[in-house]
Design brief:
Helix content is 47%, strand content 6%. The protein is mainly alpha-helical.
Length: 341
């Protein structure tokens, strides 16, 4: 294994309590970076014998089919951050010195660097596996391991995959709907998904009684009110005129000849209809949830405060309550490009 001579000079060596190992102290003053470890923490050592190295023992127990190479890469990324950039070799990390605060700092550094949640969680999993072997080798005790394992994964829902659907693309979708009964229904569907930021499962659960002059009560989970901005309200009103005033689901199947069925759409039908409209409008593929994502980003770009947007989208906690009138004004900041024909 090749050693970094510069790293050896930068980090003064001191004897370790474990026989045959020498530990390097992180420099007392280091340049600020997202990979900076806690000050003066012993985190680098010479490689241990193969039968005493927690990394080698951990990797040896992983079937190659599961992705041993990926774990090696994850441990290399962890080593770079844990040692403040002194090495990318997990074999030189002094795993006996790793504690909860180091793994928590590792997690925070990866988040700050914009690493995808799935990748962060893979790195944390590799670190946990290595630390379990360190405990079996009596390099750390059970309490240390328990605290390290207590560092939570990053929620993949924080940074979901998807894309932004632009206002121009929304306009093309509305134009594609046309002036038929099914087109009016589709326009109302888009107005609710994009103009109110509701989920696909929520939009099919909305009943006519939940709609009142642009205000919509969402009753799935914790009840909240959302508001159709200008354009969105007109689209829903135009559909209700075609739909009729019978009680039940707001969005309904429409059969050939414009016959409106007195039943509700399924969330699968919503997705299939959006796929059909996107193909006809020549809009790149998007998921129904991307309309909700675009709703949030457009409001934030328009200057809305994050607390009210969170509450409108159903993300908010009790600590971020806003008045209904204020939420209505925030909703009006969104432009819904629907124009009556």
């Amino acid at each position: 294994m090749k050693h970094d001579n510069n790293a050896a000079v930068a980090a003064p060596m001191k004897p370790d309590s474990q026989e045959g190992r020498v530990t390097a102290l992180a420099p007392a003053v280091q340049p600020a970076s997202s990979t900076e470890p806690p000050e003066s923490v012993p985190i680098v050592s010479v490689p241990a014998p193969p039968d005493q190295d927690p990394v080698l023992i951990y990797l040896a127990g992983i079937p190659a089919s599961i992705g041993r190479r990926g774990l090696q890469h994850s441990l290399a990324r962890a080593a770079e951050i844990l040692t403040g950039g002194l090495t990318k070799s997990a074999l030189i990390v002094d795993w006996a010195a790793v504690r909860y605060q180091h793994v928590a700092a590792l997690r925070a550094a990866l988040i700050d660097d914009g690493v995808k949640p799935a990748t962060i969680n893979h790195i944390l999993s590799a670190v946990r596996g290595t630390m379990r072997e360190a405990m079996r080798l009596e390099l750390v005790d059970a309490e240390t391991l328990a605290r390290v394992i207590d560092v939570n994964n990053v929620s993949t829902s924080v940074l979901p995959f998807g894309r932004h659907v632009s206002t121009g693309e929304i306009s093309r979708l509305f134009k594609t709907c046309g002036d038929s009964p099914i087109g009016a229904r589709d326009a109302a569907m888009i107005a609710l998904l994009y103009g109110c930021g509701v989920r696909r499962s929520e939009v099919v659960a909305i009943e006519l009684a939940d709609y009142d002059a642009g205000a919509v009560a969402i009753r799935q989970g914790k009840v909240r009110n959302v508001y159709c901005p200008a354009g969105g309200k007109e689209a829903v009103d135009d559909w209700i005129e075609r739909r009729g005033a019978w009680p039940g689901a707001l969005l309904c199947p429409v059969k050939r000849g414009g016959y409106v069925q007195q039943s509700g759409m399924t969330d699968q039908a919503v997705m299939l209809r959006l796929q059909y409209l996107s193909r006809r409008a020549r809009v790149s593929h998007f998921a129904p949830h991307d309309l909700r994502r675009s709703y949030v980003s457009e409001l934030l770009d328009a200057g809305a405060d994050i607390a009210s947007v969170q509450q409108l989208a159903g993300y908010a906690t009790d600590s971020t309550q806003c008045s209904e009138e204020y939420k209505r004004r925030i909703a009006e900041m969104l432009h819904v490009p629907y124009f009556r024909k």
